[in-house]
Amino acid sequence: MKEVDIDISNHTSDLIDNKILRQSDLVVTLCSDADENCPVIPPNVKKEHWGFDDPAGKSWSEFQRVRDEIGQKIKQFYDN
């Protein structure tokens, strides 16, 4: 991520907080496990699944490819 000027050195993977979830307009899952095991979402919150390959255990170039795909999807979402 440093290659694209994003600092994730303090990043942790955490479960979503229910208070934040209730205040959200949209929840986006990025992997099948999160999509299938996402907590119960309140009916007023829209849920979308943007499926991406999981690069865990694969080459560095695979991480870069998935990172770039996620970036493109976020840009498309923002532009629309």
TrEMBL record:
One protein family per Pfam: LMWPc
Keywords: Arsenical resistance, Plasmid
Entry annotated with the keyword Lyase: no
GO biological process, one term: response to arsenic-containing substance
Location of the Phosphotyrosine protein phosphatase I domain: 1-80
Coiled coil: none
InterPro entries named among the record's database cross-references: Ptyr_pPase, Ptyr_pPase_sf
Presence of keyword S-adenosyl-L-methionine: no
PANTHER family in alphabetical order: ARSENATE REDUCTASE
Protein name: Phosphotyrosine protein phosphatase I domain-containing protein
Annotated source species: Staphylococcus sp. 693-2
Lineage: Bacteria, Bacillati, Bacillota, Bacilli, Bacillales
